[in-house]
Amino acid sequence: MRPDLSRADLWREDCYIAGVWRSGDERIAVDNPANGETIGSVPFMGTAETEEAVTAADAALPEWQRLTGKERGAILRRWAALMLEHCEDLARITTAEQGKPLAEARGEVVYAAAFLEWFGEEARRVRGEVLTPHASDRRLVVSRRPIGVVGAITPWNFPLAMITRKAGPALAVGCTFVIKPSEFTPFSAMALALLGEEAGIPPGVFNVVTGDAPAIGEVLTEDVRVGKFTFTGSTAVGKMLAARCAGTVKRVSLELGGNAPFIVFEDADIDAAVEGAITSKFRNTGQTCVCANRFIVHDDVYERFAEKLAARVGQMIVGAGLEGPSDQGPLIDERALAKVEDHVADALARGGRLLAGGKRHAAGANFYTPTVIVNVAPDARLCHEETFGPVAGLIRFRTEDEAIRLANDTRAGLAAYAYTRDASRHWRLSEQLKYGMVGLNTGLVSTEVAPFGGVKESGIGREGSHLGIDDYLETRLACIAV
Ligand code: ADP
How far is CA 66 from each of CA 70, 167, 475, rounded to the nearest angstrom? Predict the structure, then answer.
Protein backbone atom coordinates (compact mmCIF):
# COMPACT_ATOMS: atom_id res chain seq x y z
CA MET A 1 0.00 0.00 0.00
CA ARG A 2 1.11 3.53 -0.78
CA PRO A 3 1.53 5.82 2.21
CA ASP A 4 -1.21 8.39 2.83
CA LEU A 5 -0.01 11.79 1.70
CA SER A 6 -1.55 15.22 2.10
CA ARG A 7 -0.32 15.99 -1.42
CA ALA A 8 -0.98 12.77 -3.34
CA ASP A 9 0.74 14.09 -6.49
CA LEU A 10 4.14 13.90 -4.73
CA TRP A 11 3.96 10.18 -5.41
CA ARG A 12 5.24 9.86 -8.99
CA GLU A 13 5.82 6.58 -10.76
CA ASP A 14 7.48 8.12 -13.85
CA CYS A 15 10.99 9.22 -14.67
CA TYR A 16 11.86 12.86 -15.21
CA ILE A 17 13.83 13.64 -18.35
CA ALA A 18 14.17 17.07 -19.99
CA GLY A 19 11.42 18.41 -17.76
CA VAL A 20 8.95 15.76 -18.94
CA TRP A 21 7.46 12.96 -16.82
CA ARG A 22 8.13 9.80 -18.77
CA SER A 23 6.46 6.45 -18.32
CA GLY A 24 7.42 3.06 -19.76
CA ASP A 25 5.82 -0.34 -20.25
CA GLU A 26 8.65 -2.29 -18.75
CA ARG A 27 8.65 -1.56 -15.01
CA ILE A 28 10.42 -2.40 -11.74
CA ALA A 29 8.29 -3.09 -8.67
CA VAL A 30 9.24 -1.35 -5.44
CA ASP A 31 8.49 -3.01 -2.09
CA ASN A 32 8.03 -1.74 1.43
CA PRO A 33 10.82 -3.52 3.36
CA ALA A 34 8.71 -3.51 6.53
CA ASN A 35 6.09 -5.90 5.13
CA GLY A 36 7.18 -6.96 1.65
CA GLU A 37 4.15 -5.35 0.01
CA THR A 38 4.62 -3.79 -3.39
CA ILE A 39 4.00 -0.07 -3.10
CA GLY A 40 4.43 0.93 -6.72
CA SER A 41 6.67 0.66 -9.75
CA VAL A 42 8.98 2.79 -11.87
CA PRO A 43 10.06 2.53 -15.51
CA PHE A 44 12.87 0.16 -16.42
CA MET A 45 14.91 2.51 -18.57
CA GLY A 46 18.29 1.87 -20.15
CA THR A 47 20.87 3.21 -22.55
CA ALA A 48 18.57 5.17 -24.90
CA GLU A 49 16.71 7.06 -22.17
CA THR A 50 19.91 7.82 -20.26
CA GLU A 51 21.46 9.21 -23.43
CA GLU A 52 18.37 11.36 -23.86
CA ALA A 53 18.77 12.63 -20.32
CA VAL A 54 22.44 13.46 -20.97
CA THR A 55 21.46 15.24 -24.20
CA ALA A 56 18.89 17.27 -22.27
CA ALA A 57 21.39 18.07 -19.52
CA ASP A 58 23.99 19.09 -22.07
CA ALA A 59 21.53 21.31 -23.93
CA ALA A 60 20.42 22.96 -20.68
CA LEU A 61 23.96 24.04 -19.69
CA PRO A 62 24.22 27.43 -21.48
CA GLU A 63 20.93 28.83 -20.14
CA TRP A 64 21.57 27.53 -16.64
CA GLN A 65 25.06 29.02 -16.63
CA ARG A 66 23.75 32.35 -17.91
CA LEU A 67 21.96 32.80 -14.58
CA THR A 68 23.93 34.45 -11.82
CA GLY A 69 24.94 32.46 -8.77
CA LYS A 70 22.41 34.45 -6.82
CA GLU A 71 19.61 33.45 -9.21
CA ARG A 72 20.55 29.77 -9.16
CA GLY A 73 20.90 30.00 -5.38
CA ALA A 74 17.39 31.43 -5.05
CA ILE A 75 15.99 28.42 -6.92
CA LEU A 76 17.92 26.02 -4.69
CA ARG A 77 16.72 27.76 -1.56
CA ARG A 78 13.16 27.66 -2.83
CA TRP A 79 13.61 23.93 -3.45
CA ALA A 80 14.80 23.51 0.16
CA ALA A 81 11.82 25.50 1.45
CA LEU A 82 9.42 23.30 -0.51
CA MET A 83 11.05 20.20 0.96
CA LEU A 84 10.49 21.56 4.45
CA GLU A 85 6.93 22.60 3.62
CA HIS A 86 6.22 19.01 2.52
CA CYS A 87 8.42 17.41 5.16
CA GLU A 88 5.76 15.04 6.43
CA ASP A 89 4.87 13.73 2.97
CA LEU A 90 8.51 13.30 1.98
CA ALA A 91 9.20 11.49 5.25
CA ARG A 92 6.29 9.13 4.65
CA ILE A 93 7.47 8.37 1.12
CA THR A 94 11.00 7.67 2.39
CA THR A 95 9.79 5.45 5.22
CA ALA A 96 7.44 3.52 2.91
CA GLU A 97 10.22 2.57 0.50
CA GLN A 98 13.25 2.55 2.80
CA GLY A 99 11.88 1.40 6.16
CA LYS A 100 13.45 3.88 8.56
CA PRO A 101 11.34 5.12 11.48
CA LEU A 102 9.29 8.18 10.62
CA ALA A 103 11.21 10.36 13.08
CA GLU A 104 14.46 9.47 11.30
CA ALA A 105 12.86 10.11 7.92
CA ARG A 106 11.74 13.57 9.06
CA GLY A 107 15.30 14.17 10.22
CA GLU A 108 16.57 13.14 6.81
CA VAL A 109 14.24 15.59 5.04
CA VAL A 110 15.60 18.45 7.15
CA TYR A 111 19.19 17.24 6.63
CA ALA A 112 18.67 16.85 2.87
CA ALA A 113 17.05 20.27 2.49
CA ALA A 114 19.97 21.83 4.40
CA PHE A 115 22.34 20.92 1.54
CA LEU A 116 20.17 22.76 -0.98
CA GLU A 117 19.96 25.77 1.29
CA TRP A 118 23.68 25.73 2.08
CA PHE A 119 24.83 25.38 -1.53
CA GLY A 120 22.17 27.90 -2.57
CA GLU A 121 24.05 30.32 -0.34
CA GLU A 122 27.48 29.17 -1.52
CA ALA A 123 26.43 29.71 -5.16
CA ARG A 124 27.43 33.37 -4.77
CA ARG A 125 30.84 32.63 -3.28
CA VAL A 126 32.69 30.89 -6.09
CA ARG A 127 35.84 32.91 -6.68
CA GLY A 128 39.00 32.91 -8.76
CA GLU A 129 42.38 34.55 -8.34
CA VAL A 130 44.61 37.04 -10.08
CA LEU A 131 48.19 35.88 -9.58
CA THR A 132 51.36 37.90 -9.51
CA PRO A 133 52.65 37.27 -13.03
CA HIS A 134 55.95 35.64 -13.94
CA ALA A 135 56.75 38.41 -16.47
CA SER A 136 55.94 42.11 -16.50
CA ASP A 137 54.01 41.84 -19.79
CA ARG A 138 51.79 38.99 -18.70
CA ARG A 139 48.69 38.74 -16.52
CA LEU A 140 47.49 35.52 -14.91
CA VAL A 141 43.81 35.08 -14.19
CA VAL A 142 42.60 31.86 -12.58
CA SER A 143 38.89 31.19 -12.75
CA ARG A 144 36.71 28.39 -11.47
CA ARG A 145 34.17 27.10 -13.96
CA PRO A 146 31.37 24.52 -13.70
CA ILE A 147 32.48 21.13 -15.00
CA GLY A 148 29.34 20.60 -17.09
CA VAL A 149 27.00 17.62 -17.06
CA VAL A 150 27.20 15.57 -13.84
CA GLY A 151 26.19 11.89 -13.75
CA ALA A 152 25.22 10.60 -10.30
CA ILE A 153 24.33 7.23 -8.81
CA THR A 154 23.03 7.07 -5.25
CA PRO A 155 22.11 4.38 -2.70
CA TRP A 156 18.95 3.59 -0.77
CA ASN A 157 20.02 4.30 2.82
CA PHE A 158 19.42 8.08 2.60
CA PRO A 159 17.20 8.37 -0.46
CA LEU A 160 16.91 12.18 -0.28
CA ALA A 161 20.11 13.40 1.32
CA MET A 162 22.46 11.40 -0.90
CA ILE A 163 20.93 13.23 -3.88
CA THR A 164 20.84 16.77 -2.48
CA ARG A 165 24.47 16.54 -1.30
CA LYS A 166 25.44 16.14 -4.94
CA ALA A 167 22.73 18.09 -6.78
CA GLY A 168 23.07 21.10 -4.42
CA PRO A 169 26.68 21.97 -5.27
CA ALA A 170 26.35 20.85 -8.89
CA LEU A 171 23.37 23.08 -9.63
CA ALA A 172 24.73 25.94 -7.53
CA VAL A 173 27.80 26.39 -9.72
CA GLY A 174 25.99 25.90 -13.04
CA CYS A 175 26.35 22.18 -13.73
CA THR A 176 23.36 20.11 -14.87
CA PHE A 177 22.50 16.74 -13.44
CA VAL A 178 21.43 13.21 -14.38
CA ILE A 179 20.72 10.95 -11.43
CA LYS A 180 20.01 7.26 -11.11
CA PRO A 181 18.60 6.67 -7.64
CA SER A 182 18.62 3.23 -6.08
CA GLU A 183 15.93 0.93 -7.43
CA PHE A 184 14.88 0.33 -3.80
CA THR A 185 14.06 4.01 -3.23
CA PRO A 186 13.07 5.81 -6.44
CA PHE A 187 9.97 7.57 -5.11
CA SER A 188 11.88 9.94 -2.83
CA ALA A 189 13.91 11.00 -5.88
CA MET A 190 10.77 11.54 -7.97
CA ALA A 191 9.14 13.66 -5.26
CA LEU A 192 12.34 15.67 -5.07
CA ALA A 193 12.26 16.21 -8.85
CA LEU A 194 8.65 17.40 -8.68
CA LEU A 195 9.47 19.92 -5.96
CA GLY A 196 12.51 21.03 -7.96
CA GLU A 197 10.26 21.68 -10.94
CA GLU A 198 7.98 23.76 -8.71
CA ALA A 199 10.97 25.65 -7.35
CA GLY A 200 11.79 26.77 -10.89
CA ILE A 201 14.54 24.41 -12.04
CA PRO A 202 14.44 24.66 -15.85
CA PRO A 203 13.85 21.56 -18.00
CA GLY A 204 16.97 19.44 -18.51
CA VAL A 205 18.86 20.78 -15.48
CA PHE A 206 17.82 17.94 -13.14
CA ASN A 207 16.93 14.56 -14.65
CA VAL A 208 16.00 11.28 -12.94
CA VAL A 209 16.37 7.93 -14.71
CA THR A 210 15.49 4.56 -13.17
CA GLY A 211 15.95 1.04 -14.48
CA ASP A 212 18.82 -1.05 -15.73
CA ALA A 213 21.65 -0.01 -13.36
CA PRO A 214 24.58 -1.36 -15.46
CA ALA A 215 23.22 0.18 -18.69
CA ILE A 216 22.52 3.55 -17.07
CA GLY A 217 25.88 3.39 -15.31
CA GLU A 218 27.64 2.73 -18.59
CA VAL A 219 26.29 5.93 -20.15
CA LEU A 220 27.00 8.04 -17.07
CA THR A 221 30.59 6.78 -16.81
CA GLU A 222 31.47 6.61 -20.53
CA ASP A 223 29.54 9.32 -22.40
CA VAL A 224 31.98 12.11 -23.36
CA ARG A 225 29.36 14.74 -22.64
CA VAL A 226 29.34 13.83 -18.93
CA GLY A 227 32.15 15.83 -17.34
CA LYS A 228 31.90 14.41 -13.87
CA PHE A 229 30.66 11.24 -12.26
CA THR A 230 29.71 11.07 -8.60
CA PHE A 231 28.78 7.90 -6.75
CA THR A 232 27.71 6.88 -3.26
CA GLY A 233 27.41 3.16 -2.61
CA SER A 234 29.40 0.02 -2.09
CA THR A 235 33.17 -0.01 -2.49
CA ALA A 236 33.11 -2.79 -5.09
CA VAL A 237 30.63 -1.05 -7.41
CA GLY A 238 32.32 2.33 -6.87
CA LYS A 239 35.72 0.99 -7.87
CA MET A 240 34.29 -0.64 -10.97
CA LEU A 241 32.46 2.52 -12.07
CA ALA A 242 35.46 4.75 -11.31
CA ALA A 243 37.63 2.54 -13.51
CA ARG A 244 35.15 3.02 -16.36
CA CYS A 245 35.44 6.80 -16.02
CA ALA A 246 39.12 6.54 -16.88
CA GLY A 247 38.33 6.06 -20.57
CA THR A 248 37.10 9.64 -20.89
CA VAL A 249 39.17 11.02 -17.96
CA LYS A 250 36.13 12.19 -16.06
CA ARG A 251 36.34 13.87 -12.74
CA VAL A 252 35.21 11.32 -10.15
CA SER A 253 33.85 11.64 -6.61
CA LEU A 254 33.25 8.51 -4.58
CA GLU A 255 31.67 8.02 -1.20
CA LEU A 256 32.12 4.34 -0.43
CA GLY A 257 31.96 1.92 2.45
CA GLY A 258 33.41 2.48 5.90
CA ASN A 259 34.43 0.23 8.77
CA ALA A 260 34.15 2.73 11.57
CA PRO A 261 35.89 2.03 14.87
CA PHE A 262 34.21 3.32 18.04
CA ILE A 263 36.83 3.53 20.79
CA VAL A 264 35.84 3.84 24.44
CA PHE A 265 38.77 4.86 26.65
CA GLU A 266 39.06 4.21 30.36
CA ASP A 267 38.33 7.87 31.19
CA ALA A 268 35.19 8.10 29.04
CA ASP A 269 31.81 9.24 30.28
CA ILE A 270 30.26 5.79 29.86
CA ASP A 271 26.65 6.95 29.75
CA ALA A 272 27.51 9.43 27.00
CA ALA A 273 29.45 6.72 25.16
CA VAL A 274 26.43 4.42 25.29
CA GLU A 275 24.18 7.13 23.84
CA GLY A 276 26.77 7.89 21.16
CA ALA A 277 26.96 4.18 20.37
CA ILE A 278 23.19 3.98 19.95
CA THR A 279 23.22 6.95 17.56
CA SER A 280 26.20 5.77 15.62
CA LYS A 281 25.44 2.06 15.47
CA PHE A 282 21.66 1.67 15.40
CA ARG A 283 20.48 4.73 13.43
CA ASN A 284 18.90 3.59 10.18
CA THR A 285 19.11 -0.02 11.47
CA GLY A 286 22.89 0.17 11.22
CA GLN A 287 22.69 0.89 7.52
CA THR A 288 24.84 3.99 7.18
CA CYS A 289 28.36 4.12 5.82
CA VAL A 290 29.47 6.01 8.95
CA CYS A 291 27.92 3.47 11.35
CA ALA A 292 30.21 2.25 14.10
CA ASN A 293 31.24 -1.20 12.92
CA ARG A 294 33.70 -2.20 15.64
CA PHE A 295 33.64 -1.25 19.32
CA ILE A 296 37.15 -1.09 20.73
CA VAL A 297 36.77 -0.81 24.49
CA HIS A 298 39.36 -0.38 27.25
CA ASP A 299 39.69 -3.34 29.61
CA ASP A 300 38.88 -1.23 32.71
CA VAL A 301 35.46 -0.15 31.43
CA TYR A 302 34.69 -3.07 29.12
CA GLU A 303 32.13 -4.84 31.32
CA ARG A 304 30.43 -1.63 32.41
CA PHE A 305 30.10 -0.30 28.87
CA ALA A 306 28.92 -3.67 27.53
CA GLU A 307 26.26 -4.10 30.20
CA LYS A 308 24.94 -0.57 29.86
CA LEU A 309 24.89 -0.82 26.08
CA ALA A 310 23.05 -4.15 26.20
CA ALA A 311 20.49 -2.73 28.65
CA ARG A 312 19.94 0.35 26.48
CA VAL A 313 19.66 -1.73 23.31
CA GLY A 314 17.08 -3.92 25.04
CA GLN A 315 14.82 -0.88 25.45
CA MET A 316 14.72 -0.09 21.73
CA ILE A 317 11.34 -0.44 20.06
CA VAL A 318 11.59 -2.42 16.85
CA GLY A 319 8.77 -2.00 14.35
CA ALA A 320 7.52 -0.66 11.04
CA GLY A 321 8.23 3.05 10.69
CA LEU A 322 4.76 4.01 9.51
CA GLU A 323 2.97 2.14 12.29
CA GLY A 324 3.35 3.73 15.67
CA PRO A 325 6.53 4.51 17.57
CA SER A 326 9.67 2.78 16.40
CA ASP A 327 13.37 3.21 17.19
CA GLN A 328 14.48 0.71 14.59
CA GLY A 329 12.92 -0.35 11.32
CA PRO A 330 13.61 -3.33 9.05
CA LEU A 331 16.73 -4.05 7.04
CA ILE A 332 16.39 -3.18 3.38
CA ASP A 333 15.93 -6.78 2.19
CA GLU A 334 16.46 -10.48 2.82
CA ARG A 335 20.06 -10.35 1.56
CA ALA A 336 20.94 -7.65 4.07
CA LEU A 337 19.39 -9.73 6.83
CA ALA A 338 21.31 -12.83 5.75
CA LYS A 339 24.60 -10.88 5.96
CA VAL A 340 23.77 -9.78 9.50
CA GLU A 341 22.99 -13.38 10.47
CA ASP A 342 26.28 -14.54 8.93
CA HIS A 343 28.28 -11.93 10.83
CA VAL A 344 26.62 -12.84 14.12
CA ALA A 345 27.10 -16.60 13.56
CA ASP A 346 30.75 -16.02 12.63
CA ALA A 347 31.42 -13.86 15.73
CA LEU A 348 29.81 -16.48 18.00
CA ALA A 349 31.69 -19.33 16.34
CA ARG A 350 34.95 -17.51 17.12
CA GLY A 351 34.17 -17.25 20.83
CA GLY A 352 31.85 -14.26 20.99
CA ARG A 353 29.09 -14.14 23.59
CA LEU A 354 25.65 -12.58 23.12
CA LEU A 355 24.54 -9.92 25.60
CA ALA A 356 21.48 -8.82 23.62
CA GLY A 357 19.58 -9.83 20.50
CA GLY A 358 21.24 -12.27 18.15
CA LYS A 359 18.06 -13.27 16.36
CA ARG A 360 15.40 -12.19 13.90
CA HIS A 361 12.60 -10.01 15.23
CA ALA A 362 8.91 -10.88 15.19
CA ALA A 363 7.99 -7.50 13.64
CA GLY A 364 8.47 -8.96 10.15
CA ALA A 365 10.64 -10.86 7.73
CA ASN A 366 13.35 -8.20 7.36
CA PHE A 367 13.57 -7.25 11.03
CA TYR A 368 16.53 -8.12 13.24
CA THR A 369 16.77 -7.63 17.00
CA PRO A 370 19.35 -5.03 18.08
CA THR A 371 22.39 -7.07 19.09
CA VAL A 372 25.40 -6.74 21.36
CA ILE A 373 28.21 -9.32 21.28
CA VAL A 374 31.19 -9.33 23.65
CA ASN A 375 34.53 -11.14 23.39
CA VAL A 376 34.58 -10.66 19.64
CA ALA A 377 37.78 -12.05 18.08
CA PRO A 378 39.77 -9.44 16.15
CA ASP A 379 39.67 -11.70 13.09
CA ALA A 380 35.84 -11.98 13.14
CA ARG A 381 34.15 -10.90 9.91
CA LEU A 382 32.34 -8.07 11.62
CA CYS A 383 35.71 -6.46 12.39
CA HIS A 384 36.73 -6.46 8.73
CA GLU A 385 33.57 -6.13 6.66
CA GLU A 386 30.77 -3.60 6.95
CA THR A 387 27.92 -5.43 8.70
CA PHE A 388 25.37 -2.78 7.65
CA GLY A 389 23.04 -3.99 10.34
CA PRO A 390 22.15 -3.56 14.04
CA VAL A 391 25.04 -5.52 15.56
CA ALA A 392 27.57 -4.10 18.02
CA GLY A 393 30.62 -6.31 18.43
CA LEU A 394 33.04 -5.44 21.26
CA ILE A 395 36.77 -6.09 21.38
CA ARG A 396 39.23 -5.13 24.14
CA PHE A 397 42.37 -3.02 24.32
CA ARG A 398 44.84 -1.91 26.99
CA THR A 399 46.91 0.95 25.56
CA GLU A 400 46.18 3.97 23.39
CA ASP A 401 48.70 2.77 20.77
CA GLU A 402 46.96 -0.58 20.59
CA ALA A 403 43.54 1.07 20.14
CA ILE A 404 44.86 3.27 17.32
CA ARG A 405 46.56 0.32 15.64
CA LEU A 406 43.36 -1.76 15.79
CA ALA A 407 41.28 1.18 14.55
CA ASN A 408 43.55 1.80 11.57
CA ASP A 409 43.83 -1.87 10.61
CA THR A 410 41.48 -1.60 7.62
CA ARG A 411 41.49 -0.33 4.04
CA ALA A 412 38.45 1.79 4.84
CA GLY A 413 38.80 5.34 6.18
CA LEU A 414 35.46 7.08 6.42
CA ALA A 415 34.43 7.81 10.01
CA ALA A 416 35.91 6.94 13.41
CA TYR A 417 34.62 7.71 16.90
CA ALA A 418 36.25 7.90 20.30
CA TYR A 419 35.08 8.72 23.79
CA THR A 420 37.63 10.14 26.20
CA ARG A 421 37.82 13.14 28.54
CA ASP A 422 41.54 13.70 27.87
CA ALA A 423 41.92 16.85 25.77
CA SER A 424 45.44 16.13 24.58
CA ARG A 425 44.32 12.69 23.51
CA HIS A 426 41.67 14.40 21.33
CA TRP A 427 44.49 15.97 19.34
CA ARG A 428 46.46 12.73 19.07
CA LEU A 429 43.41 10.81 17.92
CA SER A 430 42.33 13.37 15.36
CA GLU A 431 45.83 13.26 13.90
CA GLN A 432 46.54 9.55 14.13
CA LEU A 433 43.22 7.95 13.22
CA LYS A 434 43.40 7.59 9.44
CA TYR A 435 39.82 8.61 8.75
CA GLY A 436 38.15 11.41 6.81
CA MET A 437 35.99 12.22 9.85
CA VAL A 438 36.66 11.67 13.53
CA GLY A 439 33.88 12.10 16.10
CA LEU A 440 35.24 12.80 19.59
CA ASN A 441 32.64 12.34 22.34
CA THR A 442 29.92 12.31 19.70
CA GLY A 443 28.37 9.57 17.58
CA LEU A 444 27.24 11.91 14.84
CA VAL A 445 29.52 13.96 12.59
CA SER A 446 27.31 14.75 9.60
CA THR A 447 26.16 18.31 8.93
CA GLU A 448 25.91 20.35 5.77
CA VAL A 449 28.47 22.84 7.06
CA ALA A 450 31.32 20.28 7.46
CA PRO A 451 33.16 18.22 4.83
CA PHE A 452 31.92 14.64 4.61
CA GLY A 453 34.11 12.05 2.92
CA GLY A 454 36.70 9.36 3.34
CA VAL A 455 40.37 8.57 2.92
CA LYS A 456 41.97 5.32 1.67
CA GLU A 457 39.38 3.11 -0.06
CA SER A 458 36.42 4.98 1.41
CA GLY A 459 36.39 7.57 -1.29
CA ILE A 460 37.53 10.61 -3.18
CA GLY A 461 36.18 14.12 -2.69
CA ARG A 462 34.09 15.86 -0.06
CA GLU A 463 30.40 16.62 0.21
CA GLY A 464 29.04 19.53 2.25
CA SER A 465 30.84 22.62 3.57
CA HIS A 466 32.49 25.25 1.36
CA LEU A 467 34.82 22.46 0.15
CA GLY A 468 31.90 20.48 -1.31
CA ILE A 469 31.60 22.93 -4.17
CA ASP A 470 35.17 22.28 -5.40
CA ASP A 471 34.19 18.85 -6.68
CA TYR A 472 31.95 20.50 -9.31
CA LEU A 473 34.38 23.16 -10.49
CA GLU A 474 37.39 23.05 -12.74
CA THR A 475 40.27 25.47 -12.61
CA ARG A 476 40.98 27.49 -15.76
CA LEU A 477 43.91 29.78 -16.40
CA ALA A 478 43.99 32.77 -18.72
CA CYS A 479 47.55 33.92 -19.39
CA ILE A 480 47.23 37.35 -21.04
CA ALA A 481 50.01 39.21 -22.87
CA VAL A 482 49.56 42.93 -22.29
P1 ADP B 1 24.37 -0.83 -1.66
O2 ADP B 1 25.06 -1.87 -0.88
O3 ADP B 1 24.26 0.50 -1.01
O4 ADP B 1 23.09 -1.29 -2.31
P5 ADP B 1 25.43 -0.66 -4.32
O6 ADP B 1 26.78 -0.18 -4.67
O7 ADP B 1 25.02 -2.00 -4.79
O8 ADP B 1 25.39 -0.52 -2.78
O9 ADP B 1 24.32 0.35 -4.81
C10 ADP B 1 24.51 1.76 -4.85
C11 ADP B 1 23.98 2.28 -6.16
O12 ADP B 1 24.77 1.70 -7.21
C13 ADP B 1 22.53 1.91 -6.45
O14 ADP B 1 21.89 3.00 -7.09
C15 ADP B 1 22.69 0.75 -7.42
O16 ADP B 1 21.60 0.63 -8.30
C17 ADP B 1 23.90 1.16 -8.18
N18 ADP B 1 24.60 0.05 -8.86
C19 ADP B 1 24.83 -1.20 -8.40
N20 ADP B 1 25.48 -1.92 -9.33
C21 ADP B 1 25.67 -1.11 -10.41
C22 ADP B 1 26.29 -1.26 -11.70
N23 ADP B 1 26.84 -2.41 -12.07
N24 ADP B 1 26.29 -0.21 -12.53
C25 ADP B 1 25.73 0.96 -12.16
N26 ADP B 1 25.14 1.17 -10.97
C27 ADP B 1 25.11 0.15 -10.10
Answer: 11, 18, 19
